[in-house]
Specification:
Chain B: Pfam families: BPD_transp_1. Chain A is an alpha/beta fold. Chain A has two domains: 194 residues, Periplasmic binding protein-like II (D-Maltodextrin-Binding Protein, domain 2); 96 residues, Osmoprotection protein (prox), domain 2 (D-Maltodextrin-Binding Protein, domain 2), CATH 3.40.190.120. Chain C has a single domain, classed as MetI-like fold. The chains are: A alpha/beta, B mainly alpha, C mainly alpha.
Chain lengths: 307, 219, 224
């Protein structure tokens, strides 16, 4: 092997050095290039890590864009703890949320039960940087669901009926359900129901949770009331006479600094138009047979409803 | 209280170690999953590695396959298999076995292939059968590299088994995923500490076993 | 296939994001790892190749290599989620992924860079000194170029592992091809997950090939 070191070689190495520096520089500034912080007039819309939240976020974005404002989405940030954090920092400006759970997050001891009481209690409960816009008539609650076989076998109609069979029941739901006040603690407090086992499933009430119910790996699961799978699989939604799951109107929670009055007006306009049936239909388009892209489904809805 | 105090408080809380879902249970689950995964991965990787290393056949395929396996994203395999097979052990175990095969196979194959052909020929000249050559000459000489592969695979598996908690299984990943869901940083820090300590302890044990098993001549 | 056709643009954007998150940590990590590795080697005096044999040299080498290996025991998901705590960054910041993956690259590259410098024959270095090269110039003109082949081999492993690790960021809402995994799971859409897996593997194969080409370009002297 002859080692022939020459100038060209040295230059080549220097070139790589310079190139890497340039690249790493743009890496650090990539932060703003990809709009991680809210800059200028662009409204950044975040969403929780389940599909419906993502669809509503896309609806907000499509509506704002249609009204001549600029909006971007930052989907699937995580559970409430994560996106509320991002809202408070101002890295996102708006997140679609659900009124009851939002209130419980900030005030676990709340006495509010009706949709009106909840909306009245929210503004003072929220942290200083945050506020809520108008609520939508569309509602989507967490709900405990069982298969019709299990309902028959144990004679279940309401969550209260579960208490007698606690030792035979595994409950499936997202990990945070174990600790949220409407989750295991609430079920125990309100109904004396403490499942023998909790099975944490990270699919946002998606196919794994549904399959686990069908396969009887879990006997009851926390599903969203707008989940098309409930009707499709003939699941029974257990009644909740003690209002463990509070009323859950879809409501935009915003960081006031990041959202202009004009943008808030558009979001209020969307909220007024959005109905529970729309949520079910949109969920079905995105997660059902069609597998429509959330962005497409949202845009179609906005084009149809927002004139 | 800063994060360290909070993490300490988490570790020393009543029942943190012995409750159902406590640290002892999660540690055992974590070890159990890891052992199961390494067992199946070894079952596949070792015979193939020995055969290819000994015969020299299919070397290119092995090099290509270990490279491609390394590129497979474990989270993708886990979610895909979970959709196909539902909840339970099968889906994540298969996903992680695929992860573990690559370092194991690379270690076994390169260990055997690196044995000096002159040594092998000398053994053959003495009238050893191919099986004897493999078990009495090549394996002992390849032991350091094989153990290197095993230790690599073990470290990777112990760190990655945490992801099994993404679908409803246990293990130390539970603390990470549950902590993440509610942004409980002390719990997440505790999970990291536990996984790292477990990995280091297991690695040290493997190092001791390696010392005890390898012939003094190859140390 | 239908799913891919109607979501081609989305997949393209995610691939670009994935690419960025894979490459930047590898570059920065390597720039940091090489000096650390060279430091771990100790001074190469003429006549005696390295301090490898002295106890101080051994200790330093062991310390550097083992502390790098320690990083490996931390699950990538854990490193991603703890970054905001350490850096004070936003939960959704790309910086979390950059820094976490850079640490992994350092852990991998320190080891291979040490091996790479080891692979340079002390005789060659002595010859360079005899030809009048001073220490600094000898490093840049002789030692580093000769270490490139082994370094590139290590870099290829680091890059490929990095590409598959980037996808874990999706669990905390950082967009990459991994987003296709978490979204596909929630929407019961295997086609989306398979697209993500195939795209990740293709990305790894292409970048690996490019890196190999870069390696042979940098070491043209081998065939000269």
């Amino acid at each position: 092997m002859t080692v022939n070191i020459n100038r060209r070689h040295l230059l080549g190495l220097a070139g790589i050095g310079a190139g890497t520096l340039a690249l790493s520089a743009c890496g650090l500034s990539g932060e703003t290039a990809f709009g991680s912080g809210s800059t200028g007039d662009t409204v950044i819309i975040g969403s929780a890590d389940f599909t419906e939240s993502q669809i509503i976020a896309e609806i907000y974005a499509a509506a704002l864009n249609k009204r001549g404002l600029t909006a971007e989405t930052r989907p699937a940030i995580g559970a409430r703890e994560a996106y509320i954090g991002a809202l408070q920092e101002g890295t996102v400006g708006v997140v679609p949320d659900y009124s009851g759970n939002l209130l419980l997050y900030f005030d676990a001891q709340t006495k509010a039960q009706t949709p009106e009481e909840i909306m009245k209690a929210l503004p003072s409960a929220l942290s200083d940087q945050l506020s809520v816009l108008d609520p939508s008539p569309a509602e989507n609650k967490d709900s405990l669901v069982v298969t019709s076989e299990v309902a028959q076998k144990f004679g279940l109609k309401s969550i209260a009926d579960l208490a007698a069979h606690s030792s035979e029941i595994t409950l499936g739901g997202p990990p945070e359900f174990a600790e949220r006040s409407y989750g295991l603690p609430g079920l125990k407090k309100n109904y004396g129901f403490e499942p023998a086992k909790f099975s944490p499933i990270n699919d946002g009430g998606g196919p794994l949770t549904v399959q686990a119910l069908i396969d009887d790996q879990v006997q009851t699961a926390d599903l969203f009331s707008t989940d098309p799978a409930i009707v499709k699989n003939n699941f029974v939604v257990l009644e909740d006479p003690k209002n463990n799951f509070l009323a859950q109107q879809v409501v935009p929670v915003v960081n006031a600094k990041q959202v202009s009055v004009a943008a808030a007006d558009v979001l209020n306009e969307v909220s007024a138009l959005l109905k529970t049936e729309d949520l079910i239909a949109l969920n079905d388009r995105v997660s059902g047979e069609e597998k429509a892209n959330p962005t497409t489904a949202a845009k179609d809805w906005v084009d149809q409803k927002l004139t | 209280m800063n994060i360290f105090d909070k993490t300490w408080a988490w570790f020393t809380a009543d029942g943190a170690w012995t409750d159902s879902g406590g640290i002892f249970q999660r540690l055992l689950e974590h070890l159990g999953y890891s052992g199961l995964i390494l067992f199946f991965a070894a079952l596949i990787a070792i015979p193939i590695g020995l055969w290819v290393g000994h015969t020299g056949k299919g070397e290119n395929i092995v090099v290509g396959v270990t490279g491609a396996l390394r590129a497979l994203p474990t989270l993708g395999l886990l979610t895909l298999f979970a959709l196909w097979m539902g909840l339970g052990l099968t889906a994540p175990v298969i996903a992680l076995v695929i992860l573990a095969i690559s370092p194991l196979l690379a270690g076994v194959y390169s260990g055997i292939a690196a044995v000096d052909p002159i040594t092998v020929d000398a053994a053959r000249a003495q009238g050893m059968t191919e099986w004897q050559i493999l078990t009495r000459v090549e394996l002992p000489l390849a032991a350091p590299l094989i153990f290197g592969g095993l230790r690599n695979a073990t470290l990777q598996v112990i760190a990655t088994v945490t992801i099994m908690a993404y679908i409803n299984l246990g293990g130390l990943g539970r603390y990470l995923i549950d902590g993440l869901a509610v942004r409980d940083y002390p719990r997440m820090v505790a999970a990291v500490v536990l996984v790292a300590v477990l990995a280091l302890v297991v690695d040290a044990l493997l190092a001791l076993i390696q010392r005890a098993l390898t012939s003094p001549g190859t140390r | 296939m239908n799913w891919l056709q109607s979501n081609l643009q989305h997949v393209g954007e995610l691939t670009a994001l994935h690419l960025l998150q894979s490459i930047i940590p590898v570059i920065i990590g390597t720039i940091i790892a090489v000096p650390i590795a060279r430091f771990a080697m100790g001074r190469r005096r003429d006549g005696r190749s390295t301090e490898r044999t002295t106890s101080a040299g051994k200790l330093r080498r062991g310390l550097v290599i083992n502390s790098a290996a320690l990083l490996y025991t931390i699950p990538s998901l854990a490193l991603f989620v703890l970054m905001p705590l350490v850096l004070g960054t936003s939960i959704t910041s790309l910086l979390n992924v950059y820094v976490a993956l850079t640490l992994y690259v350092i852990a991998m590259m320190v080891r291979s860079a040490v091996d790479a410098f080891d692979s340079v024959s002390p005789v060659t270095l002595e010859a360079a000194t005899a030809m009048g090269y001073r220490t600094t110039r000898r490093f840049w003109a002789v030692e580093l170029p000769l270490a490139v082949p082994v370094m590139i081999a290590g870099l290829r492993v680091a890059l490929v592992s990095n590409i598959s690790m980037v996808s874990v960021g999706a669990v905390i809402g950082i967009q990459s091809l991994g987003t296709l995994f978490t979204d596909g799971l929630r929407r019961d859409l295997p086609a989306e997950i398979i697209t993500g897996i195939v795209a990740t593997v293709l990305l790894a194969l292409v970048l690996d090939r490019l890196l190999a080409l870069l390696g042979s370009f940098l070491t043209r002297w081998r065939t000269a």
